[in-house]
Design a protein that fits this description.
The protein has ten helices and ten strands. The protein has helices spanning 45-52, 75-82, 100-111, 116-129, 145-156, 175-192, 203-209, 229-234, 239-245, 247-252; strands at residues 5-16, 19-30, 34-39, 60-65, 68-69, 85-88, 163-167, 195-199, 212-217, 222-226. Helix 3 crosses helix 4, helix 3 runs parallel beside helix 5 (145-156) and helix 4 crosses helix 5. The protein starts with a strand and ends with a helix. The model has no long low-confidence stretch (mean pLDDT 92).
């Protein structure tokens, strides 16, 4: 069976002003992938994610979502595409003055015609999906860092997105909380068929959840590795990819 391409990146250059982070990169994210964008600090991972989520424009090149050129689409088309996407930011980015229920209800109130009762039912469903049933009336300050990430994920899933983007989801979490989040990501991918795109440098998560990946190199401003992370470890395309994927073993040696 031929894989269905959901995100196609074509000759994309990413940077700010005259400063180039990534030059002429191309790759595909297939529908149902857990796709890892990995690399060392400063290689352009998060900047690439900002481009893919429409927060900043690319310097050159194009990317397509479900065959539509996002870089050339009119604002209403972009808005419609982004409503089919969810984003989990590093900190969770919850509104501190709102309860978890109010945070998750916000996109439902803004972008749907659901009644107040229907919104409330969906909020409870999304919280239960991420293991936070019964926490509707809690404020972000009253829960742990791992719970904040899960609440942020519940909000990202509020509109039943086809694609969910994660920016360093394990940042600031202890190993147990990080493992629980990895398991949750896989559950969502397997049960809902959601395409997942994750920016991370955490090796445990990369090997645990990634079905496909790219390795970004800040020195050459290019993709130096492309494929399943476990296969890249088994058969590394170059020394840079090998060094990155084996650094944990070297640090513990």
């Amino acid at each position: 069976m031929t894989a269905e391409v959901q995100i196609a990146v074509k000759n994309l250059t990413v940077g700010y002003g005259d400063f180039v982070l990534l030059k002429d990169i191309s790759f595909n994210v297939n529908k149902g992938d857990v796709f890892i964008i990995m690399g060392g600090s400063g290689c352009g991972k998060s900047s690439l994610l900002r481009v893919l989520t429409g927060l900043v424009p690319p310097q050159r090149g194009n990317f397509f979502i479900d065959g539509v050129d996002f870089t050339k689409a009119a604002p209403p088309v972009r808005d419609e595409i982004m409503q089919r996407c969810g984003i989990l930011y590093q900190s969770g980015a919850l509104f501190s003055s709102m309860t978890l229920a109010e945070n998750i209800a916000l996109p439902l109130q803004q972008y749907t015609d659901y009644s107040e009762r229907e919104v409330s039912e969906l909020v409870s469903l999304k919280l239960a999906l991420v293991g936070l049933a019964g926490f509707e009336d809690f404020y972000p300050s009253e829960i742990s860092g791992g719970m904040k990430k899960r609440a942020g994920l519940a909000r990202a899933l509020a509109l039943d997105p086809e694609i969910v983007y994660f920016d360093e989801p394990s940042a600031g979490l202890d190993p147990i909380s990080s493992k629980l989040l990895d398991d949750l990501i896989l559950d969502i991918n397997h049960s809902l068929g959601t395409t997942i795109v994750i920016v991370t440098h955490e090796l445990a998560s990369i090997f645990a959840v990634g079905s496909n990946s790219i390795f970004l190199d800040g020195e050459t401003k290019s993709i130096q590795g492309y494929g399943n992370p476990n296969q890249l470890l088994k058969d590394p395309p170059n020394q840079k990819v090998y060094n990155f994927l084996t650094r944990g073993a070297k640090e513990n040696a």
